[in-house]
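tool_call predict_complex ligand=adenosine monophosphate
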Amino acid sequence: MDLDLDGDTLREECGVFGILDHPDAAALTALGLHALQHRGQEAAGIVTYGEGQFHSERHLGLVGDHYTDAATLARLPGSAAMGHVRYSTTGETVLRNVQPLFAELSEGGIAIAHNGNFTNGLKLRRELIANGAICQSTSDTEVVLHLVARSPQKSSADRFVDAIKQMQGGYALVALTRTKLIGARDPNGIRPLVLGDLNGSPIFASESCALDIIGAKHVRDVENGEVVICERKADGAVTIESIKPFPPRPERVCLFEYVYFARPDSIVAGRQVYTTRKHMGMNLAKEAAVEADVVVPVPDGGTPAAIGYAQESGIPFELGIIRNHYVGRTFIEPTQQIRAFGVKLKHSANRAEIEGKRVVLVDDSIVRGTTSLKIVQMIREAGAKEVHLRVASPMITHSDYYGINTPDPEALLANQHADLQSMCKYVGADSLQFLSIDGLYDAVGGIPRNAQEPQFTDHCFTGDYPTPLVDLVEENGRSPKQLSMLREAG
Ligand code: AMP
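tool_result ok
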């Protein structure tokens, strides 16, 4: 979380990657980050250790824009590397916030990158600053660096563990020292992190798709609350040690990874994301059937669920919307006239498959409702007889504080309307249905939600936050945006 200037909250979405003991460490990291690009498109950074020192390249923009040329890779020598991709919603994506962040400590340098958010980051930051710490970025990752630096422990790994024991929230962290690559997941395992292997070189990555791109083996998930320390010993041998510094508890992966965030070809906590999304669509068809001529996905997010809906309902699946892949989230709409084209910059109706038809439109989620409103209108203008919007996740009623970029609660469509009917009227559909929470649990885990001990992190849909929201409560219920501004102010 950090400062946002454009009216949205600025909660970071990120991807992390690290590799130890490989001669092409930087190039492999660039490839891994490229596969994780969907987790963050505004900035990318790589840190390596080689030739007796750390090297760092951090840039605004896409991985492919900066890390494909030989000259850049030559500036990143060494057999150990880690990197980060980041998305935030504003021009305040300044270079000082781009990870990995690096610090010289008494026993050598350490670089740290994280995916997720700390829910007590602001409190800790204030305490650190009150005690004389100088913060150069507005990123929570810097708080971890300070805590590592101040730890009384001797080894860098022990200092790292000391630091994360003070942090609360949802995170996957990767750290690089002169000899070690460390990966850690928060006690609930909210954000994913996998351990891979490329011919003996250990790898950490946010998702398994980053291992596939470089032909590495997917060894296992880093477990919730686990710290995995990979070390290159003086004799050249690489060791892997696992530490469990937190009291054991059941894993609660964030359901939003399955709904929207992770790439469909990734395996998150043992489940193929594509398959879970198809199941969401199948369950949606069972729960919210409608007579129609064609099932149309809102690409790309809604596509697997739409396939599932079509298979379950027997209604033909067609690509009734074509997506322009060259419009990133960073697309700047320069004039009012261009802005008026709105969604058409990204999505176009495929009139031949829509005209005169009763359309079931399937999307993965509704956040503010902006996309739905525009797409329903576009489908109608393309001549659809009826438009039935089906959403492959429950209503989003609560903001995320663990690394998914959602707006403040009052901006969520579900909170702006008293009931489903009012929402349906707003988006202009003939009917609107969401997948139930049990339908989602069934699609992902095969069993209904256990209300006493939910098997997943599902606060966006239920308000059941798996950690205390320390900053939010201490600041008397200030909005995430206000918290971000406080953080900026120190
Ligand atoms: P909205 O237009 O605000 O209702 O956002 C819903 C659309 O954005 C859906 O088509 C989703 O596929 C997509 N979406 C869902 N979550 C996110 C997110 N965290 N960041 C960007 N897009 C998202």
